[in-house]
């Protein structure tokens, strides 16, 4: 190899790195959010105000926190449909504990612990019972919601005033505390996924669990820990949600499952497992928040809002399939051969 070739290597490496960043789904998603934000700001000058942007972030905090855990689950080639119900169960457990005279901070830990135990229960049944996570979490959705109703009798549980700053407090010149908690969890989640043995194991299990098992990775334990992680984060989200509204309600978190999965998938988590990004899940949650905020500011129909979010989810899933090379059969030449009766 010549000296000239060696000297040029760093330049090519820098260009390749820059190109790789541009091609990342997170970069494209950030670009979509910026363009959408600019378009909305042209129609309504209130969009880019500091208070409105804080409001957008505050509205996606609960969905975003759980989306961090759902990303781990999807990367591991599983799915969790019970997160909304676990959120409610965790919140009312904390409220009931406080109502029984438990210290507010201990009550909060009890609520988060209930979420972790729910995740442990789901993971154990999935691994030891060899049952699809879709079925198990669908069952947990009903179980957790039923326990929530039994625990509260349908009545809201008051949250401790000492914890109200979590959902309603502001620091650093007006930034909501809940947003700061969310950002910290995003950073920790990304580090956990990319810089720890656990994160690498989750990716390996989702990519090929047989190869992972052959390589000595404890597949069952990794899956159980993943479900415990999302259960814990659902518990944290439950506390944040309850302190935002001031009470823990049995109906909290209804329908959140779709938004959580949407945020993770829009952010690049593959439904086929083995790929995903916590930063992407954060941006996915922000995109959903921007869309909802835009519809409110522009006074558009809420039905159109639901339709647009559904379209975004479908387009994100199609993009994921295209990125994996699974849409080659839709190439014009392949379609021509197929309709001509020849083998594609």
From TrEMBL:
Xref: CDD domains: TM_PBP1_transp_AraH_like
Chief place where the protein resides: membrane
GO cellular component, one term: plasma membrane
Topology term for the membrane: Multi-pass membrane protein
The keyword Cell wall biogenesis/degradation is assigned to this record: no
Key words of the record: Cell membrane, Membrane, Transmembrane, Transmembrane helix
Matching InterPro entries: ABC_transp_permease
Keyword match Transmembrane helix: yes
Record-linked Pfam families: BPD_transp_2
Localization annotation: Cell membrane
Spans through the membrane: 27-44, 56-74, 81-99, 105-127, 134-151, 171-193, 224-247, 303-319
GO molecular function: transmembrane transporter activity
Name the record gives this protein: Sugar ABC transporter permease
């Amino acid at each position: 190899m010549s000296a000239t070739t060696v000297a040029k290597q760093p330049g090519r490496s820098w260009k390749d790195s820059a190109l790789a960043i541009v091609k990342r789904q997170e970069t494209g998603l950030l670009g979509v959010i910026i363009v959408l934000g600019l378009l909305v700001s042209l129609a309504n000058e209130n969009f880019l105000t500091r208070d409105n942007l804080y409001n957008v972030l505050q509205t996606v905090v609960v969905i975003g926190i759980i989306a961090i855990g759902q990303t781990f689950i999807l990367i591991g080639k599983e799915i969790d449909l019970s997160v909304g119900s676990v959120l409610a169960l965790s919140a009312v457990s904390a409220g009931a504990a406080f109502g029984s005279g438990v210290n507010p901070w201990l009550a909060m830990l009890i609520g988060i612990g209930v979420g972790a135990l729910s995740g442990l229960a789901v993971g154990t049944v999935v691994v030891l019972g060899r049952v699809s996570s879709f079925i198990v979490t669908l069952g947990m959705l009903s179980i957790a919601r039923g326990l929530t109703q039994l625990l509260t009798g349908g009545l809201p549980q008051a949250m401790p005033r000492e914890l109200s700053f979590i959902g309603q407090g502001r620091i650093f010149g007006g930034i909501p505390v809940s947003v700061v908690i969310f950002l910290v969890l995003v950073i920790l989640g990304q580090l956990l996924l990319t810089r720890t043995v656990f994160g690498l194991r989750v990716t390996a299990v989702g990519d090929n669990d047989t190869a992972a098992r052959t390589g000595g990775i404890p597949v069952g334990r990794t899956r159980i820990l993943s479900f415990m992680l999302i259960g814990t984060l659902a518990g944290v989200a439950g506390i944040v949600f309850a302190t935002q509204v001031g009470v823990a309600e049995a109906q909290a978190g209804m329908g959140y499952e779709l938004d959580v999965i949407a945020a993770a998938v829009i952010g690049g988590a593959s439904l086929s497992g083995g790929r995903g990004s916590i930063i992407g899940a954060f941006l996915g949650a922000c995109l959903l928040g921007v869309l909802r905020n835009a519809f409110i500011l522009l006074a558009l129909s809420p039905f159109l809002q639901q339709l647009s979010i559904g379209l975004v989810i479908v387009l994100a899933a199609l993009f994921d399939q295209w990125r994996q090379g699974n849409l080659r059969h839709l190439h014009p030449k392949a379609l021509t051969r197929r309709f001509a009766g020849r083998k594609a």
